Amino acid sequence: MEKQKPLVSVILPVRNAEKFIDDAVQSIVHQSYKHWELIVIDDHSTDRTTSMIRKFRDRRITLLHLTKTQGISAALNVGIQKAHGEYVARMDADDRALPHRLQTQMTYLQSHPEIAVIGTNVNVIGANGKQIGIRTMPQSDTEIKRRIFFSSPFIHPTIMIRAKVFKRFGLYDFQFDGAEDYELLLRIAHHVKMNNLPERLLDYRLSEHQASFSKMQKTLVRSQKARFQAIKKYGYPKLYVILIALFQLKLLIPASLKKYLLQKSFANKSSTLSILMLTEFYPPFDRGGSEWSAYYLAQELVRNEHAVHILTPNFGSKSREVVKGIQIHRFRYLKHYNAQTPMYFTNPLWFVITIWQISIFLINHKVDVLHVQGKYYLPQVVLLGKLLRKPVIVTLRDYIALCPHAFCITKNRGYQRCSFSYFVRQEIPYFIAHYRRNPHLFIKLYTYISSIYAWCIGRILKYFLKFSDANITISQLEKKVYQENNVSIAQVIYNSIAFSKTQKSTRINNSILFIGRLTPGKGFDLLLKAFAMLAEKNKQITLQVIGQGFLQSEIKLQKQDMRIKYIGKLPHQKVYRFLKYAKIVVVPSVWEEPFGRVALEALVAGTPVVVTNRGALPEIVKDNVTGIVVEPTKESLYLGIQKALKQNLDLRKNIQKQNLAMKEKFGIKPVENYEMLYRRLV
User: Are 373 and 278 in contact (CB under 8 A)?
Assistant: First the structure.
């Protein structure tokens, strides 16, 4: 029965490994899976390595000798050519395989025939065999392919590979000794699928005699050579040559410092993480809900005893301050933060300043994770993250990386970004017609130029999304939109919000509340039409409007303008009072809202919400439970508001009942999910 099981060939190259070879071989002998062969290739050792191996009286162990020192690639190739197994497992002479390693990897490959290469995470041990840390690697094929050009996504001695891969793509290339594993992975990456298991199935030893220290410079040079070959022969983008130039900076780092940094990267993971969040705006300089979502996430992470740093431009506050445990670092930039031009955060000055500021910050502070909250940091952070081997997470909060106006995404709910030709012929004219009031020629020309510029910036942002370690969307709908446009999304994590203020209101005004930009996309013109219909039948109801936008002028054109109270823009802290005392809150969005924070804030305040079925709004509001969901038409909106007013008391009671579920979904889970993601990538 045992002979019918797949044979696993374990390949173990050795040279002068007498100190640890016994541990390595013993770890294979004591595997729970017994149908293996161990092929040890001695690369002309001059110590007692071979005599120690001969002590093992096991027919499954084969010892081969090279007559002269030929290097690890030659030794590996000799072993693979002698192997009889269906699967080939790598092993190093100073490591220890955990007892269930072969069984776990072989079973996975059998149950996943589409996977050709499988690695694992590891325990990091010192020369004395005691654990000093752990090391985790990207798990999915998508994550591995995204990272592979920048660094090896596998710990080589953990790899198990189907033997037919070597027959199809060839053996290790001896020209890349020291980076032979990396060259092989680059060679096969476009043709096979690869995974890492989350389990730690190997004790990976760091010691003074380990080759990764003494030959580090040589390894880096050959890794660069492998990247050049990958661009030339294996179809990697030629633009990657620019990234290779950045990697050359690593060669200037002294070997002693590299050793120290490597040891630090393997050190025990503390329960406390240090997170650097990068955002263009941060309270008190907020432009909308995104800044407050980042604020509440940071606040909860600090409560969980993590160190959170915010790096943001300074628009008129202290350059350094701590607010509720959040460490805020502001740097000098252009003064007028309310500028609307897309060039404000996309010009060369912004790129240079942020590269410099992030670099200085990383030199002076310990940072485990780089979390991009503001999209215009993306290229800079990705480049520095790859150079310094820091994981980069991107939270996507809009569709700028797909299309700056995004009318194409909303059109017919097809979610597809448009071509450049369509953008120029359809999107820009539509924007001018609906978002510009009687524009003269200069305004039209400026709109065309700035829109095309923004479209180009979007292409750059979308390109760099390929190289982040995890792209996060804030709703299922936003995830669908990005995936429809071939952007890999690691996870959906909803925006965070504080629930401490949630309570039942005893004083409710007879008013409808709108909060947001006064634009067609936000459906403000739709709301005015629906309110006009409602006001004819309900003489007591009023409409309160908080926000700014060019449709403000439409208010005075309404017959019921005396019953429409325009409040203007308010600080975030003052908005809550209006949310709490309103009869209902209306979010009449026409475009596909990536989230819809106003709807969530209203529910936290205990107020029912009428929303359209666009974007993520139905993910926040339960129809006929915590609010009413309608089509984005004036008739549907009118009927929905009427229904919400009539069932107001019942909806409020439902909101109170749903409070714990909402707190779990939008208060607890987002923080837990980010913590788990941070730890997985660190």
Answer: yes
